[in-house]
Amino acid sequence: MLCRPQSRRWVWLLFSLIVHFARSLAAPTHLSGDAPRVALYALDFLRRGVWPFYIYSMFAPNPLLVYLQAPTFVVFGFTEAALQGLTAFASALAFPAIYLASREVFADQGWRFARRAGVIAMLGLALSPFFNVYYTLGDETALLPVMELMVVAACWRGLRQGRWSDFGLAGVLLGLSQYSYIVARVFPLALSVALFLALWPKRQALTHGRGLALMVLTFIVLTLPQWLLFLSAPYTFFARASQVPNQFDLRVVLGIKLINQLMTLGVYWEVPHIPYLRRPMLNPVLSVGLLLAAAAMFRSRRASQIFVASIAAVMLVPDLLTFESLFPSANRLTGAVPFIFMLAGMGCATVWQWLETRPHLPAWAGSSVLVAVLLAGAENQWDFTYRVVPRINAVPGYEWQTPLIEIAEADYIAAHRDSGVLLPSSEYQRASLSFLLANYFPERAGGLKPPLTLGESVGVVSAAAPNRATFEGPPAGYLPDEWVLLKNGVAYFLPPLPASIEPAGNPYPIFARNGVVAAYAFPARWAGRQPQIKPTSASFQNGLDLAGYYTTDLLPGQPITITLYWQPRYPLPDDIQIFTQILDRNGGIVAGIHDWPLHGVYRAHAWRPGEVIPLSYRFAIPADTPAGAYQLITGVFDLIHQTRVPTVTGEDAATVATFKIPLAPDPSTPAHTLDAHLGNAIRLSGYTLEAAPGGLQAALYWQARATPEADYTVFVHVVDAAGNIVAQSDSQPLDGQYPTSIWSLGEIIVERRIIQAPPGDYQVFVGLYRWETLERLPVTLNGQRLPDDRLLLGAIHVSH
User: Fold this and answer.
1) Are residues 682 and 727 in the same domain?
2) How far apart are CA 97 and CA 150, in angstroms?
3) Residue 778's domain spans which residues?
4) Rounded CA gap, 401 and 392, in Å?
5) 3 state DSSP class of 627
6) Residue 504 neighbours by CB distance under 10 Å
7) Are 492 and 445 within 8 A, CB to CB?
8) 353 and 240 in one domain?
9) β 672-678/613-619 pair status
């Protein structure tokens, strides 16, 4: 039986599928990363009719998985099984695909050889824990291997039989592959290079020129929308490109990465976020097969061997040119994986054929290669089951274990979905949890007026570790009093409402599947009232309005809470980010954030026209933040074109509010007191005038009688006996850091100025004026307006 795989290929295929799905069921729970976030695009597609094209979380137009997920979720619900089952099924299709591709490509070495190579490659994939686990997580990467393999199989079948239908199928699959994963962009280039190197030496391509032209034309038509996007917004093409840090030599980095790639194949692989640690991609038998395939290629230079090796080599380039890490990325290697296994299968089939032709060996000797592949694969499976998985489960808080907390919370909420449940917004903003809750609460809405009455009973779920780190990271700015209300099939996003719940019972733990305490739940009564909303008006050209805001006070060393209330006038055309910043008077950023609204679980692209969405942030304000005026600004960032969206009046940001950090009280007293009034809002209550090295020093004691209407400039003039100004100091109070427009009623502002002047006897005058017009404020003393609207402080002698 083992010596005739061509007659038992369906048995081996069935065996491969059983192993694959059995491993999928036994793999650790994993819902982090892109998988649940992309699934929310399917929710937006189903509930809001949002057609995803450019997917921000993947920085690419990769909507194919979304359109496949949508009908899957309709039938099976937003569940782990539906999410991971789709990609498990897609990756399972790689088994027959790699067999077909191997059979077609290696047919030039004989049908028996080609089938053996295909069976070994198929079993290699099936018995690879890396492939079983990684491609069944729900990520879009699972779609690429089967599509690449089917393109190769159809293309080579067309080259062999000359049928246009095969070339047309290859073109369709090649075009669709471009919408599967970002690495697929390199696949058309790899295919072109491989076909040229394999076919051009014997001019074989010329005999199939029309068929290849049909494949290319079909590919162009299907990928035209993508390339139009790349041309109109170049960022979308280069989004995931990263640069080598300046301190490293590019050649050294590329050399290290290439060595690490080769190590990954057969020696050692360390990938922090993949649980299959330290074992190479290929087992020892397949590693030897890969080396033998390379040797056979250099010896015989068959077109099929050159073709597969060329594709594998070019598809290693995306990882090679991604400088996020010196270690290979499982995602980036996706495009090369099937062809590496094809080469390994071809090398093992070469050994099989060689053993079979040795007259001094028994007839079954060649079958020992297949047995070796099976035993090495079984050892890999045993190692994964009894070493890797227990190791994962033994690490508290490990990324693959943490999503169990979200699963436990979702299970509890699902069991209590008939009553209102309050969940911290930071918890709901974890994509894995919001995905699981979509099965019971598929609608999302702004919660400015939540469907709750004062005193109504609600359940409250609070995570045991709200700031825990996962692959996707904890949401920025955790606010303990910001809730999402889950009621009547809708998730309502509420603004921060301090003291909004009154506990009505003791908390009790919610246990995750691994036995850890995931969260606590307790009954409560709703005590939240309508939040304070300050009106503001800012409209952006993409149809988004800022309808209001609320902030706490700006104080050094204290956090500030900011809530912005956004309202779309019509469906937004594209995904956006929103930036919110606190700026000092010079435009420096004191605190701020530039983020995807609600961490992507309710994208602005899916917001309903007219609904109000509160977005809240909590910023840490440095303790050394000086007194003065500050601005709160906000704006919208176009993710596709990487530009700020202007307001309808043309500004690139909207000013929401102004803040003031008051001056610390000054305990000093003036040497001279007086009662001089400058305009209607400012009083000079005293001053101190004294000599200083090389000049003089004036201390001015201002007092606000009301908040001044404008920012006035203070002038201090040093005048000689002839009336000439020999020195002066003109600036806003405290060098502009504390302008008059932020002075409060009754506030005393003490400012000190040192003015350099030549030796001599002088008079010192002071006054205020508007910089824009140079118009001085009227100065009155003892009810009399002073000439030239300036106040004489006194005379002073300046010496060396």
Assistant:
1) yes
2) 6
3) 672-798
4) 8
5) coil
6) 12
7) yes
8) yes
9) unpaired
